[in-house]
UniProtKB/TrEMBL annotation:
Gene3D superfamilies: Glutamine synthetase, N-terminal domain, Glutamine synthetase/guanido kinase, catalytic domain. One of its GO terms (molecular function) is ligase activity. This is Glutamine synthetase family protein. Its EC number is 6.3.1.-. It comes from Siminovitchia sediminis. The keyword Ligase applies. Keywords: Ligase. Belongs to the glutamine synthetase family. It comes from the Bacteria. Residues 130-466 form the GS catalytic domain.
Amino acid sequence: MSVNIKPQVSDNKELLTQIKEEINSRNVKMISLGIPDMDGRYKGKFLTSDYLISNAVKKGSFLCDILFGWDITDEIYSDNGLFSCWGNGFPDVYIKPDLKTFRYKPWGQNTATMIGDLYQINGELVEVAPRTVLKKMIERSEKLGYQFSFGYELEFYLFKETDQSIKEKDYRNLIPATSLMNTYGLVEIPEVQIVFDEITEYLKEYGIAVESFMYEAGEGQFEMSVNHSDPLDTADKVMLYKTAIREIAAKHGLTVSFMAKFDENMSGSSGHIHQSIMSIDSPDVNLYWDRSKQGMSSVMENVIGGLLKTLPDFTAMYCPTINSYSRLVTGSWTGVNVTWGVDNRTTALRVISTDSKSIRIENRIPGADANPYLTLAAFMASALYGIENEIDLPNRTDGDAYVQEGLTPIPLTLDKAIEVLENSEVAHLYFSEEFLNQFIYTRKWESEKFRKTVTEWEKKRYLERV
Ligand SMILES: NC(=O)CC[C@H](N)C(=O)O
Protein backbone atom coordinates (compact mmCIF):
# COMPACT_ATOMS: atom_id res chain seq x y z
CA MET A 1 0.00 0.00 0.00
CA SER A 2 1.21 3.45 -0.84
CA VAL A 3 2.30 5.78 1.95
CA ASN A 4 0.03 8.33 0.32
CA ILE A 5 -2.98 6.38 1.50
CA LYS A 6 -3.52 5.72 5.18
CA PRO A 7 -2.81 2.00 5.63
CA GLN A 8 -5.55 1.31 8.17
CA VAL A 9 -8.29 2.34 5.76
CA SER A 10 -10.01 -0.56 4.07
CA ASP A 11 -13.35 1.03 3.26
CA ASN A 12 -13.59 1.91 -0.44
CA LYS A 13 -15.55 5.13 0.13
CA GLU A 14 -12.93 6.45 2.50
CA LEU A 15 -10.12 5.34 0.20
CA LEU A 16 -11.73 7.18 -2.67
CA THR A 17 -12.00 10.35 -0.59
CA GLN A 18 -8.30 10.10 0.20
CA ILE A 19 -7.42 9.53 -3.45
CA LYS A 20 -9.41 12.60 -4.47
CA GLU A 21 -7.60 14.65 -1.83
CA GLU A 22 -4.24 13.41 -3.07
CA ILE A 23 -5.14 14.19 -6.67
CA ASN A 24 -6.18 17.72 -5.74
CA SER A 25 -3.38 18.57 -3.36
CA ARG A 26 -0.67 17.25 -5.66
CA ASN A 27 -2.31 18.43 -8.87
CA VAL A 28 -2.22 14.94 -10.38
CA LYS A 29 -3.23 15.11 -14.04
CA MET A 30 -2.72 11.57 -15.30
CA ILE A 31 -2.92 8.19 -13.62
CA SER A 32 -1.42 5.07 -15.12
CA LEU A 33 -3.75 2.17 -14.47
CA GLY A 34 -2.19 -1.20 -15.20
CA ILE A 35 -1.81 -4.88 -14.57
CA PRO A 36 1.12 -7.30 -14.80
CA ASP A 37 1.35 -9.15 -18.11
CA MET A 38 2.67 -12.72 -18.39
CA ASP A 39 6.25 -11.44 -18.02
CA GLY A 40 5.38 -9.32 -14.99
CA ARG A 41 5.57 -6.04 -16.90
CA TYR A 42 3.29 -3.14 -15.96
CA LYS A 43 0.81 -2.67 -18.83
CA GLY A 44 -2.34 -0.58 -19.19
CA LYS A 45 -3.38 2.97 -19.99
CA PHE A 46 -2.82 6.53 -18.83
CA LEU A 47 -6.16 7.98 -17.71
CA THR A 48 -6.91 11.57 -16.81
CA SER A 49 -7.63 11.91 -13.09
CA ASP A 50 -11.09 13.29 -13.91
CA TYR A 51 -11.96 10.25 -15.99
CA LEU A 52 -10.57 7.85 -13.41
CA ILE A 53 -12.62 9.36 -10.62
CA SER A 54 -15.83 9.96 -12.55
CA ASN A 55 -15.83 6.71 -14.46
CA ALA A 56 -13.01 4.15 -14.22
CA VAL A 57 -13.11 3.58 -10.46
CA LYS A 58 -16.61 2.24 -10.85
CA LYS A 59 -16.68 0.79 -14.34
CA GLY A 60 -13.02 0.05 -14.95
CA SER A 61 -10.89 1.00 -17.92
CA PHE A 62 -11.41 -0.92 -21.14
CA LEU A 63 -8.67 -2.24 -23.37
CA CYS A 64 -8.06 -5.00 -25.87
CA ASP A 65 -7.34 -8.47 -24.49
CA ILE A 66 -4.27 -8.63 -26.75
CA LEU A 67 -2.15 -8.06 -23.58
CA PHE A 68 -2.35 -11.84 -23.24
CA GLY A 69 -2.26 -12.54 -26.97
CA TRP A 70 1.31 -11.56 -27.75
CA ASP A 71 4.84 -12.16 -26.58
CA ILE A 72 7.45 -9.93 -24.92
CA THR A 73 8.18 -8.27 -28.29
CA ASP A 74 4.46 -7.75 -29.09
CA GLU A 75 4.45 -10.50 -31.70
CA ILE A 76 1.01 -12.12 -31.82
CA TYR A 77 0.81 -15.80 -30.86
CA SER A 78 -0.38 -18.06 -33.63
CA ASP A 79 -2.69 -20.44 -31.74
CA ASN A 80 -6.38 -19.77 -32.27
CA GLY A 81 -7.36 -21.71 -29.16
CA LEU A 82 -5.81 -19.24 -26.71
CA PHE A 83 -7.69 -16.88 -24.38
CA SER A 84 -6.68 -13.99 -26.62
CA CYS A 85 -6.34 -14.73 -30.33
CA TRP A 86 -7.50 -13.82 -33.84
CA GLY A 87 -10.07 -16.61 -33.50
CA ASN A 88 -11.80 -14.67 -30.70
CA GLY A 89 -11.54 -11.35 -32.49
CA PHE A 90 -9.58 -9.76 -29.62
CA PRO A 91 -12.51 -8.41 -27.57
CA ASP A 92 -12.29 -5.90 -24.73
CA VAL A 93 -11.42 -6.68 -21.16
CA TYR A 94 -11.31 -4.14 -18.37
CA ILE A 95 -9.04 -3.20 -15.49
CA LYS A 96 -10.81 -2.44 -12.25
CA PRO A 97 -8.50 -0.35 -10.06
CA ASP A 98 -7.53 -1.68 -6.65
CA LEU A 99 -7.92 1.54 -4.68
CA LYS A 100 -5.33 0.51 -2.09
CA THR A 101 -2.61 0.66 -4.75
CA PHE A 102 -2.89 4.38 -5.51
CA ARG A 103 0.56 6.00 -5.44
CA TYR A 104 1.60 9.51 -6.24
CA LYS A 105 4.70 9.34 -8.44
CA PRO A 106 7.20 11.85 -7.04
CA TRP A 107 9.48 11.76 -10.09
CA GLY A 108 6.60 11.88 -12.60
CA GLN A 109 5.00 14.74 -14.53
CA ASN A 110 2.04 15.25 -12.16
CA THR A 111 1.23 11.58 -12.37
CA ALA A 112 0.17 8.72 -10.11
CA THR A 113 -0.08 4.96 -10.54
CA MET A 114 -2.68 2.34 -9.76
CA ILE A 115 -2.79 -1.42 -10.23
CA GLY A 116 -6.00 -3.27 -10.92
CA ASP A 117 -7.52 -6.63 -11.68
CA LEU A 118 -8.46 -7.76 -15.15
CA TYR A 119 -12.06 -8.73 -15.90
CA GLN A 120 -13.91 -10.02 -18.93
CA ILE A 121 -16.96 -8.16 -20.19
CA ASN A 122 -19.19 -10.79 -18.52
CA GLY A 123 -17.74 -9.69 -15.16
CA GLU A 124 -15.52 -12.73 -14.60
CA LEU A 125 -11.91 -12.35 -13.60
CA VAL A 126 -9.46 -13.16 -16.39
CA GLU A 127 -8.14 -16.54 -15.34
CA VAL A 128 -4.80 -16.28 -17.17
CA ALA A 129 -3.88 -12.90 -15.62
CA PRO A 130 -1.00 -13.31 -13.10
CA ARG A 131 -2.60 -11.04 -10.48
CA THR A 132 -5.71 -13.26 -10.57
CA VAL A 133 -3.49 -16.34 -10.19
CA LEU A 134 -1.75 -14.91 -7.11
CA LYS A 135 -4.99 -13.69 -5.54
CA LYS A 136 -6.51 -17.16 -5.87
CA MET A 137 -3.45 -18.69 -4.20
CA ILE A 138 -3.76 -16.17 -1.36
CA GLU A 139 -7.44 -17.09 -0.91
CA ARG A 140 -6.42 -20.73 -0.70
CA SER A 141 -3.74 -20.09 1.93
CA GLU A 142 -6.05 -17.89 3.99
CA LYS A 143 -8.70 -20.61 4.04
CA LEU A 144 -6.08 -22.86 5.62
CA GLY A 145 -5.27 -20.14 8.17
CA TYR A 146 -1.91 -19.02 6.77
CA GLN A 147 -0.65 -15.53 6.03
CA PHE A 148 2.46 -15.61 3.87
CA SER A 149 5.15 -12.96 4.14
CA PHE A 150 7.62 -12.27 1.32
CA GLY A 151 10.68 -10.10 0.81
CA TYR A 152 12.35 -9.75 -2.60
CA GLU A 153 16.00 -9.15 -3.47
CA LEU A 154 16.67 -7.85 -6.95
CA GLU A 155 19.93 -7.48 -8.80
CA PHE A 156 20.29 -5.42 -11.96
CA TYR A 157 22.79 -3.82 -14.30
CA LEU A 158 23.01 -0.12 -15.01
CA PHE A 159 24.42 1.00 -18.36
CA LYS A 160 25.49 4.42 -19.57
CA GLU A 161 23.27 3.88 -22.58
CA THR A 162 19.84 4.77 -23.86
CA ASP A 163 17.38 2.46 -25.69
CA GLN A 164 18.52 4.19 -28.86
CA SER A 165 22.27 3.88 -28.28
CA ILE A 166 21.87 0.19 -27.39
CA LYS A 167 20.06 -0.42 -30.66
CA GLU A 168 22.62 1.55 -32.64
CA LYS A 169 25.41 -0.51 -31.06
CA ASP A 170 23.48 -3.68 -31.86
CA TYR A 171 23.64 -4.66 -28.15
CA ARG A 172 27.46 -4.81 -28.22
CA ASN A 173 30.09 -3.00 -26.13
CA LEU A 174 27.60 -1.48 -23.70
CA ILE A 175 29.24 0.85 -21.19
CA PRO A 176 28.50 -0.15 -17.58
CA ALA A 177 27.70 2.60 -15.06
CA THR A 178 30.82 1.53 -13.14
CA SER A 179 33.60 -0.14 -15.04
CA LEU A 180 35.43 -1.54 -12.06
CA MET A 181 34.54 -4.86 -10.49
CA ASN A 182 34.32 -3.93 -6.80
CA THR A 183 31.66 -6.02 -5.02
CA TYR A 184 30.56 -4.50 -1.68
CA GLY A 185 32.82 -1.53 -2.56
CA LEU A 186 32.13 1.61 -0.54
CA VAL A 187 33.91 4.07 -2.79
CA GLU A 188 31.40 6.79 -3.54
CA ILE A 189 31.09 7.48 -7.24
CA PRO A 190 29.13 10.75 -7.38
CA GLU A 191 27.29 10.11 -10.64
CA VAL A 192 26.09 6.72 -9.34
CA GLN A 193 25.39 7.95 -5.82
CA ILE A 194 23.10 10.67 -7.15
CA VAL A 195 20.99 8.10 -8.98
CA PHE A 196 20.67 5.85 -5.92
CA ASP A 197 19.94 8.78 -3.62
CA GLU A 198 17.11 9.69 -5.95
CA ILE A 199 15.88 6.11 -6.30
CA THR A 200 15.74 5.49 -2.54
CA GLU A 201 14.22 8.90 -1.78
CA TYR A 202 11.56 8.61 -4.48
CA LEU A 203 10.75 4.98 -3.70
CA LYS A 204 10.25 5.86 -0.04
CA GLU A 205 7.73 8.54 -0.96
CA TYR A 206 6.19 6.07 -3.43
CA GLY A 207 5.56 3.60 -0.58
CA ILE A 208 8.23 1.07 -1.47
CA ALA A 209 10.66 0.78 1.41
CA VAL A 210 14.23 0.09 0.37
CA GLU A 211 16.80 -0.27 3.13
CA SER A 212 20.09 -0.37 1.27
CA PHE A 213 21.86 -0.80 -2.02
CA MET A 214 25.22 -2.36 -2.77
CA TYR A 215 27.72 -2.91 -5.54
CA GLU A 216 27.33 -6.48 -6.79
CA ALA A 217 29.74 -8.86 -8.47
CA GLY A 218 29.52 -7.44 -12.00
CA GLU A 219 30.64 -4.22 -13.68
CA GLY A 220 27.69 -1.89 -13.25
CA GLN A 221 25.71 -4.45 -11.23
CA PHE A 222 23.79 -3.50 -8.09
CA GLU A 223 21.46 -5.10 -5.58
CA MET A 224 18.53 -3.46 -3.84
CA SER A 225 15.79 -5.30 -1.92
CA VAL A 226 12.08 -4.76 -1.45
CA ASN A 227 11.05 -5.08 2.21
CA HIS A 228 8.83 -7.94 3.29
CA SER A 229 5.05 -7.69 3.13
CA ASP A 230 2.02 -9.82 2.23
CA PRO A 231 2.19 -11.62 -1.15
CA LEU A 232 0.01 -9.27 -3.22
CA ASP A 233 1.65 -6.14 -1.87
CA THR A 234 5.13 -7.61 -2.47
CA ALA A 235 4.36 -8.61 -6.06
CA ASP A 236 2.78 -5.20 -6.78
CA LYS A 237 5.82 -3.47 -5.32
CA VAL A 238 8.33 -5.55 -7.28
CA MET A 239 6.55 -4.74 -10.55
CA LEU A 240 6.38 -1.03 -9.72
CA TYR A 241 9.96 -1.00 -8.38
CA LYS A 242 11.31 -2.37 -11.67
CA THR A 243 9.33 0.22 -13.63
CA ALA A 244 10.35 3.02 -11.26
CA ILE A 245 14.08 2.26 -11.40
CA ARG A 246 13.89 2.12 -15.18
CA GLU A 247 12.24 5.54 -15.33
CA ILE A 248 14.46 7.23 -12.73
CA ALA A 249 17.65 5.84 -14.26
CA ALA A 250 16.51 7.03 -17.71
CA LYS A 251 16.37 10.60 -16.37
CA HIS A 252 20.12 10.27 -15.88
CA GLY A 253 20.71 8.81 -19.33
CA LEU A 254 21.07 5.29 -17.90
CA THR A 255 19.42 2.04 -18.89
CA VAL A 256 18.56 -0.71 -16.39
CA SER A 257 18.55 -4.41 -17.21
CA PHE A 258 16.86 -7.11 -15.16
CA MET A 259 17.91 -9.77 -17.68
CA ALA A 260 19.04 -12.90 -15.79
CA LYS A 261 22.44 -13.11 -17.50
CA PHE A 262 23.34 -10.26 -19.80
CA ASP A 263 26.91 -11.49 -20.43
CA GLU A 264 28.33 -14.96 -19.89
CA ASN A 265 31.46 -13.44 -18.32
CA MET A 266 29.53 -11.38 -15.79
CA SER A 267 27.52 -12.35 -12.75
CA GLY A 268 23.83 -13.12 -13.25
CA SER A 269 20.98 -11.07 -11.81
CA SER A 270 18.89 -12.83 -9.22
CA GLY A 271 15.43 -12.28 -7.82
CA HIS A 272 15.94 -14.17 -4.54
CA ILE A 273 12.78 -14.55 -2.48
CA HIS A 274 12.64 -14.55 1.33
CA GLN A 275 9.60 -16.13 2.88
CA SER A 276 7.97 -16.98 6.20
CA ILE A 277 4.42 -17.80 7.32
CA MET A 278 2.30 -16.19 10.00
CA SER A 279 -0.94 -17.43 11.44
CA ILE A 280 -3.97 -15.44 10.26
CA ASP A 281 -5.15 -15.24 13.87
CA SER A 282 -1.85 -13.92 15.25
CA PRO A 283 -0.01 -12.18 12.43
CA ASP A 284 2.98 -11.35 14.65
CA VAL A 285 3.80 -15.00 15.27
CA ASN A 286 6.21 -16.54 12.78
CA LEU A 287 5.09 -20.16 12.40
CA TYR A 288 8.57 -21.24 11.32
CA TRP A 289 9.87 -20.90 14.89
CA ASP A 290 9.47 -23.63 17.49
CA ARG A 291 10.09 -22.18 20.93
CA SER A 292 10.77 -25.52 22.58
CA LYS A 293 13.45 -26.32 20.00
CA GLN A 294 14.68 -22.74 19.69
CA GLY A 295 14.68 -23.32 15.95
CA MET A 296 12.82 -24.75 13.00
CA SER A 297 9.18 -25.79 13.54
CA SER A 298 7.47 -28.77 11.94
CA VAL A 299 5.56 -26.34 9.66
CA MET A 300 8.88 -25.08 8.35
CA GLU A 301 10.14 -28.63 7.86
CA ASN A 302 7.03 -29.49 5.83
CA VAL A 303 7.40 -26.33 3.75
CA ILE A 304 11.04 -27.16 2.94
CA GLY A 305 9.89 -30.68 2.09
CA GLY A 306 7.18 -29.35 -0.23
CA LEU A 307 9.47 -26.79 -1.81
CA LEU A 308 12.21 -29.28 -2.59
CA LYS A 309 9.83 -31.88 -3.93
CA THR A 310 8.32 -29.39 -6.35
CA LEU A 311 11.29 -27.16 -7.19
CA PRO A 312 11.65 -28.81 -10.62
CA ASP A 313 7.88 -28.50 -11.22
CA PHE A 314 8.00 -24.73 -10.84
CA THR A 315 11.43 -23.92 -12.26
CA ALA A 316 9.73 -22.59 -15.42
CA MET A 317 8.02 -19.92 -13.28
CA TYR A 318 11.23 -19.04 -11.40
CA CYS A 319 13.29 -19.05 -14.60
CA PRO A 320 10.85 -18.17 -17.39
CA THR A 321 13.09 -17.14 -20.29
CA ILE A 322 15.67 -18.84 -22.48
CA ASN A 323 18.27 -16.57 -20.91
CA SER A 324 17.29 -17.49 -17.31
CA TYR A 325 19.13 -20.78 -17.71
CA SER A 326 22.49 -19.23 -18.60
CA ARG A 327 22.51 -17.92 -15.03
CA LEU A 328 22.11 -21.38 -13.50
CA VAL A 329 25.72 -22.51 -13.57
CA THR A 330 28.13 -23.97 -11.02
CA GLY A 331 29.83 -21.37 -8.86
CA SER A 332 27.41 -18.60 -9.82
CA TRP A 333 25.96 -18.14 -6.30
CA THR A 334 22.66 -19.57 -7.45
CA GLY A 335 21.22 -22.98 -6.63
CA VAL A 336 21.51 -25.55 -9.41
CA ASN A 337 20.26 -28.65 -7.61
CA VAL A 338 17.39 -29.71 -5.36
CA THR A 339 19.07 -28.86 -2.06
CA TRP A 340 18.60 -26.95 1.14
CA GLY A 341 21.13 -25.81 3.72
CA VAL A 342 21.49 -23.59 6.74
CA ASP A 343 22.94 -20.24 5.71
CA ASN A 344 24.44 -22.00 2.70
CA ARG A 345 24.69 -19.91 -0.47
CA THR A 346 25.41 -22.89 -2.70
CA THR A 347 22.07 -24.61 -2.11
CA ALA A 348 18.75 -23.78 -3.80
CA LEU A 349 17.07 -23.03 -0.47
CA ARG A 350 18.95 -21.16 2.23
CA VAL A 351 17.45 -21.38 5.70
CA ILE A 352 18.09 -18.28 7.77
CA SER A 353 17.24 -19.20 11.33
CA THR A 354 18.42 -16.21 13.29
CA ASP A 355 15.55 -15.70 15.74
CA SER A 356 11.83 -16.21 16.35
CA LYS A 357 10.86 -13.14 14.32
CA SER A 358 13.04 -13.36 11.23
CA ILE A 359 13.46 -17.10 10.72
CA ARG A 360 12.80 -17.65 7.01
CA ILE A 361 13.56 -19.51 3.80
CA GLU A 362 15.41 -17.89 0.93
CA ASN A 363 14.73 -19.37 -2.50
CA ARG A 364 17.86 -18.64 -4.57
CA ILE A 365 16.61 -20.05 -7.89
CA PRO A 366 14.50 -17.17 -9.31
CA GLY A 367 16.16 -14.65 -11.59
CA ALA A 368 15.45 -10.92 -11.72
CA ASP A 369 13.70 -11.63 -15.03
CA ALA A 370 10.87 -13.64 -13.42
CA ASN A 371 7.28 -12.46 -12.99
CA PRO A 372 6.90 -11.80 -9.21
CA TYR A 373 3.19 -12.68 -9.21
CA LEU A 374 4.01 -16.13 -10.55
CA THR A 375 7.15 -16.77 -8.48
CA LEU A 376 5.21 -15.99 -5.31
CA ALA A 377 2.23 -18.11 -6.40
CA ALA A 378 4.59 -21.02 -7.17
CA PHE A 379 6.38 -20.60 -3.83
CA MET A 380 3.02 -20.65 -2.03
CA ALA A 381 1.76 -23.69 -3.95
CA SER A 382 4.87 -25.67 -2.96
CA ALA A 383 4.66 -24.53 0.66
CA LEU A 384 0.95 -25.40 0.97
CA TYR A 385 1.58 -28.73 -0.72
CA GLY A 386 4.29 -29.46 1.87
CA ILE A 387 2.03 -28.50 4.79
CA GLU A 388 -1.10 -30.21 3.52
CA ASN A 389 0.77 -33.47 2.88
CA GLU A 390 3.13 -33.21 5.87
CA ILE A 391 6.14 -33.79 3.63
CA ASP A 392 9.20 -34.81 5.62
CA LEU A 393 12.27 -32.64 5.86
CA PRO A 394 14.77 -33.94 3.28
CA ASN A 395 18.46 -34.35 4.07
CA ARG A 396 20.25 -31.08 4.44
CA THR A 397 23.32 -30.24 2.39
CA ASP A 398 26.36 -28.83 4.13
CA GLY A 399 29.36 -27.42 2.33
CA ASP A 400 29.73 -26.84 -1.40
CA ALA A 401 26.55 -28.12 -3.10
CA TYR A 402 28.07 -27.48 -6.54
CA VAL A 403 30.57 -30.33 -6.24
CA GLN A 404 28.77 -32.99 -4.20
CA GLU A 405 27.75 -36.18 -5.95
CA GLY A 406 24.30 -37.69 -6.05
CA LEU A 407 22.33 -34.44 -5.94
CA THR A 408 19.38 -33.98 -8.31
CA PRO A 409 19.79 -31.04 -10.69
CA ILE A 410 16.87 -28.69 -11.24
CA PRO A 411 15.80 -28.46 -14.91
CA LEU A 412 18.65 -26.62 -16.61
CA THR A 413 16.93 -25.64 -19.86
CA LEU A 414 13.58 -23.98 -20.52
CA ASP A 415 12.48 -27.01 -22.55
CA LYS A 416 13.14 -29.37 -19.66
CA ALA A 417 11.44 -27.04 -17.18
CA ILE A 418 8.33 -26.79 -19.38
CA GLU A 419 8.19 -30.58 -19.73
CA VAL A 420 8.35 -31.05 -15.94
CA LEU A 421 5.70 -28.39 -15.35
CA GLU A 422 3.41 -29.88 -17.98
CA ASN A 423 3.58 -33.29 -16.28
CA SER A 424 3.39 -31.95 -12.74
CA GLU A 425 0.52 -33.27 -10.65
CA VAL A 426 1.09 -30.61 -8.00
CA ALA A 427 0.92 -27.77 -10.54
CA HIS A 428 -2.43 -29.09 -11.73
CA LEU A 429 -3.69 -29.28 -8.16
CA TYR A 430 -2.81 -25.67 -7.32
CA PHE A 431 -3.16 -23.77 -10.62
CA SER A 432 -6.10 -23.61 -13.04
CA GLU A 433 -5.93 -25.50 -16.33
CA GLU A 434 -6.60 -22.31 -18.27
CA PHE A 435 -3.67 -20.50 -16.71
CA LEU A 436 -1.29 -23.45 -17.00
CA ASN A 437 -2.15 -23.96 -20.68
CA GLN A 438 -1.55 -20.29 -21.43
CA PHE A 439 1.70 -20.11 -19.45
CA ILE A 440 3.09 -23.31 -20.95
CA TYR A 441 2.13 -22.17 -24.45
CA THR A 442 3.96 -18.87 -23.99
CA ARG A 443 7.11 -20.60 -22.71
CA LYS A 444 7.09 -23.10 -25.57
CA TRP A 445 6.78 -20.14 -27.92
CA GLU A 446 9.95 -18.58 -26.39
CA SER A 447 11.76 -21.86 -26.78
CA GLU A 448 10.67 -22.32 -30.40
CA LYS A 449 11.73 -18.76 -31.29
CA PHE A 450 15.17 -19.48 -29.90
CA ARG A 451 15.45 -22.89 -31.52
CA LYS A 452 15.14 -21.26 -34.93
CA THR A 453 17.77 -18.62 -34.15
CA VAL A 454 21.39 -18.82 -35.25
CA THR A 455 23.47 -17.28 -32.47
CA GLU A 456 26.81 -15.46 -32.58
CA TRP A 457 28.24 -18.34 -30.56
CA GLU A 458 27.26 -20.88 -33.20
CA LYS A 459 28.82 -18.82 -35.99
CA LYS A 460 32.08 -18.33 -34.13
CA ARG A 461 32.26 -21.98 -33.22
CA TYR A 462 31.24 -23.71 -36.41
CA LEU A 463 31.41 -21.39 -39.41
CA GLU A 464 34.82 -22.38 -40.82
CA ARG A 465 35.36 -25.50 -38.72
CA VAL A 466 32.69 -28.07 -39.44
N1 LIG B 1 23.80 -11.88 -3.95
C1 LIG B 1 24.13 -13.08 -4.33
O1 LIG B 1 24.02 -14.04 -3.59
C2 LIG B 1 24.56 -13.27 -5.76
C3 LIG B 1 23.48 -13.95 -6.57
C4 LIG B 1 23.82 -14.19 -8.04
N2 LIG B 1 24.17 -12.98 -8.70
C5 LIG B 1 22.66 -14.87 -8.75
O2 LIG B 1 22.42 -14.61 -9.90
O3 LIG B 1 21.95 -15.67 -8.19
